[in-house]
Amino acid sequence: MNLKLHIWRQKNNKANGAFEQYAVSDISEDMSFLEMLDVLNEDLIVEGKDPVAFDHDCREGICGACSMTINGNPHGPEKATTACQLHMRKFKDGQEVYIEPFRNKSFPVIRDLVVNRSALDRIIESGGYISVKTGSAPDANDIAVAKSKADVAMDAAACIGCGACVAACPNGAAMLFTSAKLKHLNVLPQGQAEKKKRTLAMVDQMDKEGFGSCTNHYECEAACPKSISVEFISEMNFEYAKARATAYRD
Amino acid sequence: MSTLEGLHVIGEANFSDHGANRLGASALMQGLADGYFVLPYTIGNYLAKAELKKIDADTPECKATVKEVEDKINKLINVNGTKTPSYFHRKLGKLMWDKVGMARNEAGLKHALEEIPKIREEFWKDVKISGTGAEYNISLEKASRVADFLEFAEIMAYDALDRDESAGAHFREEHQTPDGEAKRNDDDYRYVAAWEYKGVGQRPELHKEQLEFENVKLAVRSYK
Ligand code: SF4
Ligand code: FES
Questions:
Q1: Does residue A79 sit in the same domain as residue A121?
Q2: Which residue in A64, A132, B5, B20 has the fewest CB atoms around it within 10 Å?
Q3: Contact status of A234 with chain B (Cβ, < 8 Å)
Q4: Per-window interface: A 28-67 vs B, CB < 8 A
C-alpha cells in the first residue's frame, strides 16, 4: 500500500518543529507501524537525509518506549495496542497519516518523535518501591498474598509507563500512570508499611513535575495500551486525602 | 560478585544453575529467584556497606574511554559510504541464522568465519550514517551496535566451532543420537569457555574453566 505521511520534525529541544510530508510506497499490510517507519528511514539515509528519530526497544508491547501520536491518538487508532504492535492493515491504501510526538510540557521533545519521559521515572523514584532489609533473604512463603489482591496488583503492574495517558489527557495529567504504580504496591501486604508515605510522595512528585489534574475525561483509559482502569485514580485520590488528613499523627 | 570488585553477575546473566544457555523461561526464573533470594545477600548487602566514591571525569581511565568512543564515532561518520547500518545488520543476521543458528555444523561455521570478516570490511568501507556525532542520531546508534555485533558474531562462531559436541542450544549436527537428540562429550568439553578478546580480526584466546561435579552425576538430558 502507499501512504502519505505528515511527520513532526524537530532537530532538538531548542529548535522549532514542523510537519513534513513523506510518501511511502509498497508497504506490506503485515508490517508493524514501526517497520513502516524503518522502511522510510532506510530511504532517507540513502538519500543523505536525517532519518525520523523515534523511540523503540522491545517492539512487542512491553517496554513502553514507542511513544508517538498517530492521527491524533497516542499509540494509534487500535484499542489496547502500542504503536509497535499496530499493523499496517489497519490503514487504507492512499491514506494520510499524521505522526507526532506525545505532547506535554513535562515531556520535552528530544528529537522528532522522541520525548524525554524521565518525569515518570522520578515519580517512581519518589516512592514506587518497598524498602527491604539487606543481608538476609526472606522465606519463600512467609507473607501470604490473597488471590484477589495479587490479581489487582497484577492488573496495576501491567502499566508499561509509556505516557500515552498523559498525551491523551486534555489536562496533561499523569494520574492514570501514578495511580497504577501506587495501586500495584499499596494493595500488597508487603506494601502496607510505607503506604501512606508512598502515596504522599508520589502524588506530590507528580504535581512537582507539572502534570495537570484529573477532571474525569477518561481519555487516558481509552488511550492506554494496557487498559489500565480509571478506578485506580479514584482510589489514589481517596488514599491521598486520607494520608494528608492524618499526616499530623506521624 | 564477579572477579571484579563491585561487578555483580546476577539474574539473567547468572548461569550458575541452568548451564550457560539462556533460554526464555530459565532466564526468567533465574531473574525471579535471584531477585528474591540472592539479591539481599549480594548487591543489596554490597551497596549497604560500600563506600561509593564519586568518580572524576579527569581520571586517565575515563579520559581514555571517552577518547576511544569519540574516535570510533568519528571513524563511523567519516566512512560516508552508500549502505545503511540496517543493510549490514540484516546481512550479518541472515548469515548467523543460517550458519550459526541452533543447529550448526563444522562446514557452516567455517564458512561463517570466512564471511563475517568480509561483511565487517565492507561495513567499515561502505556504511552510510546521516548527521553528526554531536546530536541525537539514530543511524549512528544503530551503526555502533552493528559494529559490535560484527565482532561478537565472530566469537560466537569460534566458540561453536571449537565445541565439538552438542550441548543444550548448541546443536552440532555431527553429534546427535540416532533419534536426533544432542550428544554431549563430557570427557573433552566439561568446561566453560571464556574467550579473551584480542582485537578486531584477531583470533580470541580460549580460557577453559573446568567444571567439577562433586554432588551430581552427569547424565543425559532427555525430554522424552
Ligand atoms: S497507565 Fe497506560 S497509558 Fe499510562 S503509562 Fe501506564 S500503560 Fe501507559
Ligand atoms: S517498542 Fe516496546 S512497547 Fe513498543
A1: no
A2: B5
A3: no
A4: 38, 41-42, 44-46, 48-51, 53-54
